[in-house]
Each structure stands twice: as C-alpha cells, then as structure tokens.
Write a structure and sequence with these properties.
The protein folds into two domains: about 80 residues; about 70 residues, no CATH class. The protein has six helices and no strands.
Length: about 170
C-alpha cells in the first residue's frame, strides 16, 4: 500500500476521533459551581485533534500536488519492497513488550497508587524514550527528561488549575 494512502487513512481516522470527541462533549451536563464545566477538556482535545488533522491533510495534499512523480516512484519502489520482508529481532520485540509493560505501570501508578501525574508522566516518557532509542546517546535521556517535565508539570497544571479535573497532584 502506498505511503500517502496510509497517511490519508490515519488522518481521516484522527479527524473522526476529534469530531466524535466534540460530539460526545455536547452530551456532558455542566454544573453550576464549575466555571468552565466538564465539557471544556473534551472540546479542547477534540478541537486540537480536528485542527491538526486538517492541517496535516493540507500538508499532505500540498506535497502530493507538488510532486506527482513521487507517487509513481513510490509505486515502483513498492514492488521492490514487497520482496524484501523485514524480520524482527528478538530485541525489537522485547522493546515493544517493554513499552507495553511500562505503559501498564504508568496507568497503575496513576490510578492504583495515586502517584502524582507529573512524576508518573516524567518517569514514563523518560523510560519510553530510553526503550525506543537503541543507542543511548547523551542527548536522548536529557531531551526526554525535559519533554517529560514540560508535559508532566504543564499537563498537571492545565488539568488541575484550568479544567478543574481531579488528578493526583503535587500541589
């Protein structure tokens, strides 16, 4: 299957997911004591998903309209690639299994042990980056730690202070 077809299918699925999130948010009833209401988080997530899907779709269309020969070249290369099947090594399969285990521990840490969202997210992203990166160059763990801190602390502040969603929190 052509690469751009797979990308287009993924974009349509994400667009549908964003629209479904917005539609589902309309079914949520609000409370008088909640200034933003519980609808705000699904609206924002759905809106971002729709906006990013549309933007990625426009980029894909622009790339296809600029370079129609790339589509033909991709079709020619597809026949060559079909004959070369990729064998996965045991290490690659263990990495994927390890990532599933880390994700399960992340969910357990949040909901069973009530570990603060920011700490659990930092540890999860750092571990996932180290698992997915084969050669641990000096920058990868540092970048993962910074990204984890931004996403973990920023997400915790966003959900607890802006959307008023009760998460296990440091503050």
């Amino acid at each position: 299957m052509k690469y751009w077809v797979i990308e287009a299918i993924a974009l349509v699925l994400f667009l549908g997911l964003g629209i479904a999130s917005i539609v589902a948010a309309t079914q949520i009833t609000g409370f008088s004591f909640d200034p933003l209401g519980s609808k705000s988080a699904p609206y924002v997530v759905g809106g971002f998903t729709v906006a990013l899907s549309v933007a990625a779709g426009l980029i894909l269309l622009r790339g296809l309209s600029r370079d129609p020969e790339a589509m033909q070249q991709e079709s020619a290369n597809e026949a060559d690639d079909a004959s070369e099947k990729r064998d996965y090594t045991a290490l690659e399969l263990l990495e994927v299994l390890g990532l599933f285990v880390v994700a399960i521990f992340y969910v357990l840490a949040l909901f069973k042990f009530r570990l603060p969202f920011s700490i659990a997210t930092i540890v999860f992203l750092l571990t996932a980056a180290c698992l997915l990166e084969r050669t641990l160059r000096g920058r990868i763990p540092i970048i993962a730690l910074i990204a984890g801190a931004i996403i973990g602390i920023g997400g915790e502040l966003l959900f607890t202070k802006v959307f008023f969603i009760d998460l296990p929190s440091l503050w």
